[in-house]
Amino acid sequence: MGDGDFRILVTGDPGAWTPPGAGAGVSFVFEWVAGRGRVLAALRRDRYDAVLVDAAGPGSEGLDLARRIRRRYPALPVVMVLGPEAPGPLQEAAEAAGVLECVAAGALDRAFFRRLRGVLAALRAGREGARAMAARCEALARCLPPESWEWDLAAGTFTCSPALGTALGLGRGEAAAGDPEAFFARVHPDDRPRLEARIGMHLEGGNECWECDFRLRQADGAYRWVKGRGAAVRDGAGCPVRLLGGHEDHSTRESAGAEAVRAAFHDPLTDLPNRVLFLDRLGQCLRSAPRRRRRFAVLFLDLDGFKQVNDTFGHPAGDRVLREVGRRLLQCVRPGDTVARLGGDEFTVLVDGIRHIRDATRVAERIQRALEAPFPLGDRRVRVSASIGIAFGGQGAARAEDLIRDADMAMYRAKSLGKSRHEVFDVQLHALAAESERIEAQLRRAVEAGELQVFYQPIVTLRTGRVSGFEALVRWRHPERGLLEPEAFLPAAERAGLMERLDLWVLREASRQVHDWHRRMNGGPRLFLGVNIGGGTLSRPGFGGEVRRVLADTGLEPCRLRLEIADRSLLSDPAALAGALLDLAALDVQVGIDDFGAGDASLSLAALDRLPIHSLKIDPTFIRRVGEGDAGLEIAHAIVTLAHNLDMDVTAEGIESEAQLVHLRTVECDYGQGAVFSMPIEAAAAEGLIADRFRG
């Protein structure tokens, strides 16, 4: 038995029935045990991932056993296997007892075991994350002073230690599981914003721990200076789930006050000026610009390759790189210039007293040379570079925020042109910025005005040539510019924070449409629906509940829905989406990976096997190479083989020629879509295709 296998206890006689999924490459190890006493003894003795209870025997023995297992082992999934004549009341009683699923013995096929594997994989990931989180929480708690607290960020409860509760005059109920406000309301009003900013920056991953001097009101009503420090407990995805803190007496008020002033204007990780101080100094330059002959420039830096450092070596290593970047930046500027960290891997430089834009580009060149040297991380060395945007002061930006925006836009152009370079904001970019803001405003109105429309691209079974499903693709019927493709407005939707709303709108509208086709063509083909979902939407708390409501409201069968996620957003950190995948697996909703092979994360094949993924969609760049030589076909064949070995189906996206179609059939690719079949079409035209298939 391998480390990744799932151990399943099956009750009853081994000769009574054999799960067809056994031995089908689904990573299960089955053990048969007959008799209630022996089953319970086996559960006490060994650890299993799930139990299949045979309810086909006489009376209600199987149901009684399932109830007993659920009471003793509530975290252990139980599946009730029903006989061919199983009455409805037995299934209802089993579901009331909390079994994971009731399934007929004849339905124990590959699809069932693939679904079960998805649920068990997500549960295992959740357990491993919980164990690691508990260990981190215990280690942090041991380092806290007597006056300490713990904030459960998910539950919203705030628990004080007995010493802190006594010092603050909190009642036992308030100290045990109170509202966080019971604590923060006792922080001096002048100090609270600074404390919340320090904690907020830490929760966002800005530094390894939070530290802050502040005044805390005691039980007698007097304020006492304390030095607070603590750290977050994060799950496997790096998201904070608990926050721990403690306080020690810090009676030197003067030093605390000076520290507070500095903390308000400096980044705690690098000790560089923060956004607040940078905006203040930039505002001074803007106000004095009309009476000065000398000009100034803003450089906006975004590090290239920094995310890989964090993902590979962890956030502490990333913090060391950020501190070293700050040190090198200071060596590239004059004493009167300002280097600031805005957050994450973004830095800004204010170069004052220059005559020509060339003076600013020389600073950018010095910075890029300074970053060429590798950054030491213990016995390893990493390299990062910077994409830099430059905006020249006095070119029309009336506010500090506008000048930073202009430099930011120039930085994005530098990054799009190959990274590790600099670009200067110009009139063309200014027009692009204005157009981008206009599109964002129009897009917000378009959602309300019903200007968005779902198009449907057929997905064809390559073996038969018949339409088996559709991918839903959004279009915008712009009142002035006509029908717009997604690339013309989705970037604006992302900048405007509309992607989650857009994803859910497409999901609801397409689910309603496909169910309507099924209803009106009773007895016709049962189609599946593919809907693209962004990684941010999928990992949003409550997304599983949103999908459940959409299915309930539209009537679409869950097994007909396939949510497609780009591989780079899903596989870069599998644990981050384990909870959402568990919710979807429980709903019987499928998840597929879109554009497989397009991102570096595709190389993490071990993670692919652990996630409840049902399908892969080959990136069109690989499909275009099929038919051009042996290499393209070999890549497609390798992806198909990989998917089939993991019990996944494969769709080739972007098939444009009959030659590509023939080659993909030879490697047994399951589905295909592209211009050779049909471009994305409106709902009425798609309905015509379905009707033709129904009549055929």
Automatic annotation (TrEMBL):
Q: Any keyword Nucleus?
A: no
Q: Tell me which PANTHER family the record gives.
A: BIOFILM ARCHITECTURE MAINTENANCE PROTEIN MBAA (PTHR44757:SF2), DIGUANYLATE CYCLASE DGCP (PTHR44757)
* Domain of life the protein comes from: Bacteria
User: Which CDD domains did the record assign?
Assistant: EAL, GGDEF, PAS
An example GO BP is:
phosphorelay signal transduction system
Q: Which UniProt keywords apply?
A: Phosphoprotein
Source organism:
Dissulfurirhabdus thermomarina
Known Pfam families for this protein? EAL, GGDEF, PAS_3
Q: Which residues form the PAC domain?
A: 210-262
Q: What NCBIfam families does this protein map onto?
A: GGDEF
List, for all copies, the residue spans of the domain called Response regulatory.
Answer: 1-120
InterPro entries the record matches: Biofilm_reg_signaling (IPR052155), CheY-like_superfamily (IPR011006), EAL_dom (IPR001633), EAL_sf (IPR035919), GGDEF_dom (IPR000160), Nucleotide_cyclase (IPR029787), PAC (IPR001610), PAS (IPR000014)
Where are residues bearing 4-aspartylphosphate located in the sequence? Answer: D54
Parts forming coiled coils:
none
* Domain EAL residue range list: 436-694
Domain named GGDEF is located at 294-427
Q: What is this protein called?
A: EAL domain-containing protein
Q: Does the keyword Phosphoprotein apply?
A: yes
